[in-house]
């Protein structure tokens, strides 16, 4: 009985020694001279530059588009038209203002998460990045509400059915960007932790299968949910 117990303890210790260290604190790059830059900031700027280059190339291609879409034009119209129709179903006439911003935010979330497939740490596993995205949505929600309703009507609706609920609705609006930031951060972080554990325990075959989910499907889910929450918050603010 003792040898079996000792064997199990040894196996548990060996497995534990292989597990990676988990650190949720942002990493930094030493630029010299006592200057440091966050890894997520570096990756985020790289993603932004990449998106700008892609958009510039796509813009040049739009000059050759025809009335009958084909090839790349067909997919571009499918994506852009889908986002506009989706936004219109949520926020009505405000879709013309909201859809481009929502599409931009969703593109950034997708690119900043999928960058992990190329060996870079995803920018979205840093809370500062996801908080910036949440605050961007907060600005979009309130600017859209003010332009649609005006300040007086906006305050009136936040005080409906009576003034007692105004502090609650105000707090809800202020908490929303932090909620979105934590949700996105936690989901990306958990996916990364699971993959590290899988690589440590089963380094072959299984990681390749799971990475298809955590690097692609999970990124698509998080992108969709971020866009959905943004549109829902806007709809609540202007209805």
Biggest pleated-sheet summary: 2 strands, antiparallel
Query: What is the N-to-C order of secondary-structure elements (H for helix, E for strand)?
Result: HEEHHHHHHH
Q: Nearest-angstrom radius of gyration?
A: 23 Å
Number of helices: 8
The total of beta strands comes to: 2
**N/C terminus separation:** 69 Å
Strand adjacency order, main sheet: 1-2
- The 3D shape can be described as globular
Quaternary structure type: single chain
Question: Structural class, from secondary structure content?
Answer: mainly alpha
Low-confidence stretches: none
What is the mean predicted local confidence, pLDDT?
82
What count of domains describes the coordinates? 1
- Residue share in β-strands: under 5%
Tell me roughly what share of residues is in helical segments.
over 70%
Q: Key features?
A:
single chain, 239 residues, mainly alpha, two-stranded antiparallel ribbon, 8 helices, 2 strands, 4% strand, globular
Q: Can you describe what's shown?
A:
Helix content is 76%, strand content 4%. It has 8 helices and 2 strands, in the order αββααααααα. A two-stranded antiparallel ribbon has the order 1-2.
Short description, anyone?
The chain has helices spanning 2-18, 39-62, 72-91, 95-114, 127-149, 151-158, 166-201, 206-238, and strands at residues 28-32, 35-38. The protein has 239 residues and is mainly α.
């Amino acid at each position: 009985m003792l040898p079996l117990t000792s064997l199990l303890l040894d196996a548990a210790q060996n497995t534990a020694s292989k597990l990676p260290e988990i650190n949720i604190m942002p990493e930094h790059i030493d630029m010299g001279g006592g200057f440091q830059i966050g890894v997520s900031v570096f990756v985020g700027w790289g993603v932004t530059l990449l998106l700008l280059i892609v958009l510039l190339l796509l813009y040049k291609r739009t000059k050759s588009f025809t009335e009958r879409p084909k090839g790349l034009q067909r997919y571009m119209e499918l994506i852009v038209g889908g986002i506009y129709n989706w936004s219109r179903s949520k926020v009505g006439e405000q879709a013309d203002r909201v859809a481009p911003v929502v599409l931009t935010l969703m593109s950034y979330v997708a690119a900043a998460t999928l960058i992990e497939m190329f060996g870079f740490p995803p920018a979205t596993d840093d809370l500062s990045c996801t908080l910036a995205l949440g605050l961007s949505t907060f600005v979009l929600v309130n600017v859209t509400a003010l332009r649609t309703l005006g300040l007086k009507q906006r305050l009136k609706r936040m005080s409906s059915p009576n003034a007692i609920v105004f502090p609650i609705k105000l707090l809800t609006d202020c908490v929303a960007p932090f909620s979105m930031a934590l949700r996105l951060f936690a989901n990306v972080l958990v996916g990364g932790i699971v993959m590290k554990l899988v690589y440590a325990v089963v380094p072959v075959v299984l990681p390749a299968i799971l990475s298809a989910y955590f690097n692609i499907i999970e990124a698509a889910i998080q992108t969709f949910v971020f866009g959905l929450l943004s549109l829902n918050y806007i709809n609540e603010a202007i209805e």
